[in-house]
Specification:
44% of the residues lie in helices and 11% in strands. The chain is an alpha/beta fold. The termini are far apart. The model has no long low-confidence stretch (mean pLDDT 94).
Length: 231
């Protein structure tokens, strides 16, 4: 047993209102914001708004540094099966505290979207319903279509995808053909602290910049910057 962080927002909660539980799963969690779509909907229904942190994120750490922290042996407990049981324990705790008859909606997006879907299968009677947004319930090997979608989106801005390709190629060449000073200069420009970062890790880091720019609504701004004269 270990402590998992969770937050509550009782501002809109009515006595018999539903309970909305937001599952964090890819980042350090934060209190449930009533500005978020799901939480705003919950607030309009008199819901108790809750957020649950995923094991191994933020302060929800099963092992302290003195117990090995994120050692190889300890990380075997970072898996979805354990995460589903964490949620089950939490849901039962909430029922005891707030009443077993209140309807419970479990919410997640992306990986947490898959988690809440799997939870409903593993514990079909624990919650009333789930809200899975972009739930990645199936693993797809060599999933190239995600990258293609980013390319296709940036192609809507003249010269943007071409500039991304040029940047990627130039930086690739620094790692593959450049001198040590070339590499250190590059890492310094990107404020990378670890000079031993691998070629693959850095290229993933670079690609993720463009991906996040598109995925979270910044494509126009990003492409305008990349195709500007100043850049």
């Amino acid at each position: 047993m270990f402590n998992i962080r969770w937050w509550k927002n009782e501002k809109y909660s009515t006595k018999d209102g539903p309970i909305f539980i937001y599952i964090c799963g890819e980042w350090t969690c934060a209190p449930p914001s009533d500005d978020a779509t799901a939480m705003a909907f919950g607030a309009s229904k008199g819901a108790l708004l809750l957020a649950l942190e995923h094991r191994y994120y933020g302060n929800s750490q099963p092992f302290s540094d003195s117990q090995g922290g994120w050692s190889y042996d300890n990380l075997k407990w970072l898996n979805t099966t354990q995460a589903l049981e964490d949620i089950e324990v939490y849901v039962q705790k909430i029922k005891l505290e707030y009443g077993a008859n209140r309807k419970i909606l479990l919410i997640g997006g992306s990986y947490p979207g898959a988690v809440v879907s799997w939870f409903k299968v593993a514990h079909p009677d624990s919650v009333t319903a789930i809200w899975s947004s972009s739930g990645v319930i199936h693993a797809i090997k060599n999933f190239t279509m995600f990258d293609y979608d980013i390319y296709n989106a940036t192609s809507q801005s003249a010269g943007c995808s071409e500039m991304i390709a040029k940047i990627t190629s130039d930086i690739d060449n620094v790692f593959l053909k450049g001198t040590l000073n070339d590499k250190l200069f590059l890492l310094n420009r990107f404020a990378v602290i670890n000079p031993d970062i691998t070629h693959g890790d850095f290229m993933w880091y670079l690609a993720d910049m463009f991906t996040m720019g598109v995925q979270y609504g910044g494509r126009t701004e990003m492409c305008s910057l990349l195709t500007s004269k100043d850049f």
